[in-house]
Amino acid sequence: MTLSYADHPALQGDFEPARYDASLYDCEVIGEIPAALNGTFYRACAEWFYPPRYPDDSPFAADGMITAFRIGDGSCDYAARFIETPRYLANKAARRQLFGYYRNPFTHEPPMQGQYNKADTVSNTNVIFFAGRLLALKEDAPPMEIDPDTLETKGFFDFGGDYKAPTFSAHPKVDGRTGEMITFGYEAEGLATNAIWIYTIDAGGKVTSERKLSAPYLSMVHDIAISQNYILIPVYGMVSSMERLREGKVHWGWDTTLPSHIGVLPRHGDASDIRWFDGPAMAMVHTFAASDEGGVITLDAAVSDGNPFPFFPDVHGKPFDPAGARTTIRRYVIDMNASGGGWREERMWQDKPGALSRIDERFMGHRFRHGLLSFSDETKPFSGDMGSRRPTNSLGRFDFATGEVEAMFAGPEFGLQEIAFAPRSPDAPEADGWVMALGTNYETMKSELLIGDTANLAAGPVARVRLPFRAPQQVHGNWVPAWSRGA
Ligand SMILES: [Fe+2]
């Protein structure tokens, strides 16, 4: 049987599948990796081992792959390995793609038709180290445990059976002081249901609470936020239904006519304590973080007015609107003391699009000042060719108090992926340390890990770890300091 990616326009150039596991000892380094930088940068990647059944399927359905940059003593070793999900193994046994559209089991090939959740997940969205385990995350299924040293797949993990929802989040929040995780699954009572189950899991990995909510409507709840006292749950017009799945459509469609909502649940309250606040259409796919004082919550997020995903069509047939997809940094202020059910929106940083929002996660769930993000500075030169696209070319530290940003320009040849942050020491000041991101060098079409020092971002990368090949496309990743693993 012919195996070719040629008919898939989305899988060309820098998105051409790499398809290989890799292990590379002692990578080439330009500059100096800081001697005090000691840990592993794990990346969750989306990589089609077999081409999609439908050329217009979204990258959300590409196979999960974990890569690891292990850094210490000024050196770096690299490894990459596919996650052996049941889907990946079934496809390999059949030597072809058996599965149809992302999260639409009606479009899978028999005998996989109708199978979903553990059967069709690709575990490709995030990778975290929590309670001594490395977990690959995807919001349509439980976590997949990965050996942090060999990157071998160990299997689905459900916290000793105490995590009961069939789905999990790719963006659980871990309180930076207590180590407690707040996480959730949506479509928690089956495909296309509006059930959201919220869990608290202590730092040792024990589930301590389960709360079952119903959203105002079924929506892609990709990310939440936590403040000192509240859990914030955005619901917006990325919608689905059993009808559209049975019609063989992609899981998600965008509905501009729906209001958006933010659910506010006390961290230690019951499900009945949820309050839903309402506002105009927007898409809050990712949050930076939240904080609260005196009952007033501030939620900072990267938000667009319209559909951010061109591969999820408008349910009313409207053409994709690139201006509506533009993401900017916004602050949402919710007053729990007020009787009204709305919020106040402040637009904070408008001239540089960027959607990959992080903070120094030691401050998650507490007062914080800085956002960390990869963004596109369109005033900078680009020597590569991405067609009509513009590269993400800068890593920034955004100051929510002053609105100012310090930035590291990667160089004219680079397109960057998501930022990761490594604190300088366990008790370093907030956002003091090193930033890093994988870059595609568009002159060589190979990958480099670029590392910058927050003490002088404008100076550019202090180290470039060069790979002799192009690494897979990252969805999200995290720096895991050696000290957090007891090393
Ligand atoms: Fe995400």
UniProtKB/TrEMBL annotation:
Q: Does the keyword Oxidoreductase apply?
A: yes
Alphabetically ordered keywords of this record: Dioxygenase, Iron, Metal-binding, Oxidoreductase
The prosthetic group or cofactor this protein requires is: Fe(2+)
The UniProt record lists the keyword Plastid: no
Q: How is the cofactor bound?
A: Binds 1 Fe(2+) ion per subunit.
Q: What family does the database annotate? A: Belongs to the carotenoid oxygenase family.
Name of this chain's protein: Dioxygenase
